[in-house]
Amino acid sequence: MSSKNNLVMRAETALGAEVQLAARARHVLRQNDMGDWTCAAPNLYPHQWSWDSAFITIGLAHLSTRRAAKELLALFGHQWGTGKVPHIVFNSEAPPDSYFPGPEHWACAAASPDAPPAPPYTSCLCQPPVHAIAALRVWEVAERNGGEGVDEARAFLRQIYPKLLLWHGYLMTHRDPEGSGLVTIYHPWESGTDNSPRWDAALAAVEVGDLPSYPRYDLRHVANPSERPTSADYDRYIWLVKLIKKASCDETNIYRSHPFLVKDILFSAILVAANEALLKIAALVEAQDGDYTLIANWIARGHRGLDGSWDPELGLCLNYDLRAGTPLRALTVAGFAPLIAGRQSPERLEALIAALESSAFLGHPWLRWPVPPSTSPLQVGFHPRSYWRGPTWPVINWLLWWSLLRAGEPERAQRLRQASLQQLAFGGFGEYFDPFTGELLGANDQSWTAAVALDWLVADDLLIAA
Ligand code: DGY
């Protein structure tokens, strides 16, 4: 056979594999569809999670504009009076022993004057604000596809814009009373990267008091307990929830007395990128004049905050422990925050790419595929199978891919996309993966993994403006 035929055959096989993968991703999203929201994963996560829903919206945008819009509108239907978007909206139909801490544990949050009407109950924590990025993606996909989706997407942007503005306003005020440009979190769950070593020092300082015994339903759904946070971690998580409830979920009370107050750079960087998206949405919905200046100021403040967290020696940003008054030194993917925030200087971009491609991340010789481990194998506390202490997470890889495109690095972005897809074709739509063996860990059929895979596969040619 001629080498030309050989090449054509290989290209056809690769295309066939991508078509199959996209079909499987669509199937996962349909299977987890609850009507106007999507459960994060069938067994382990039977409720609606905030940042999961945002990533899921990005995937749904390729199935139906209307359904994608519903996903975010359903979540924002439970927005608190302060503008906060809760990290979990509890599914009233889920079996009572399916998740802990479930709705009954959070029920007291509903007593807060700022809480939305219950049921359904919500938690009073929040998660990284990927939502405006997702809303803009719904528009971009609809506009590219043309047809009736364009009008639906425009109507959706009009509905969601004031809610997004309120949400970002909450984060820029209640979660940054210092005006630092960085978001304060009250609980590792708010970071979305629960047991990352970046929280180890701040958590170690939290003294756990009297705690009644509680169930670990999460352990029933994984092959091995080492894939989930340890019981020492969990005690601290549950203790922090207890303290937040004791403070009546009131921001001022929490800020005054809470033992875990940390500036999270990944959360803050996502907020900068989300504010960039919000600025574009503001123009699309012809927002009032004052909004543009307000959002532009938020963006500038966010960049200043991240600049102040830069560690030139590591070539990464560091989180900051407000209680101890010290930076939290850890080699994790969160350190790439300025890449995600966007608009970095050429020198900063060069340093970030050097760190990304170093043996601490993509250049590590033991990696099964060149996709970044959530925690560097060179970091003390790294564990290849334990949740955020080493496994690679497809949604983080999507964020980095999207950020590389925006930074004008299409070849690097494409390499990351290909490696990520190879991993999913090999392992399935897992929640996270062992970076050395490629083994699927955590939940199967995780909705946000299927969603980002679909975006990689279908939106390959979508132009992402810097
Ligand atoms: C969990 O249960 O693992 C979540 O991360 C908390 O939101």
Tell me what the structure shows.
With 466 residues, the chain is mostly helical. It is built from 17 helices and 10 strands. It is globular. (2R)-2,3-dihydroxypropanoic acid binds next to loops.
Give me some keywords for this one:
466 residues, mainly alpha, 4-stranded antiparallel beta sheet, two-stranded antiparallel sheet, 17 helices, 10 strands, 49% helix, 5% strand, binds (2R)-2,3-dihydroxypropanoic acid
The whole-number mean of residue pLDDT values reads 95
Major sheet details: 4 strands, antiparallel
First-residue to last-residue Cα separation: 44 Å
Poorly predicted regions are none
Query: How much of the sequence is in beta strands?
Result: 5-15%
Order of helices and strands: HEHHEHHHEHHHHEHHEEEEHHHHEEH
What structural class do helix, strand and pairing data support? mainly alpha
The geometry reads as globular
Helix content: 40-55%
Radius of gyration: 21 Å
Tell how many strands the DSSP assignment holds.
10
Identify the strand order in the major beta sheet: 3-4-7-8
Number of DSSP helical runs: 17
Name the bound molecules.
Answer: (2R)-2,3-dihydroxypropanoic acid
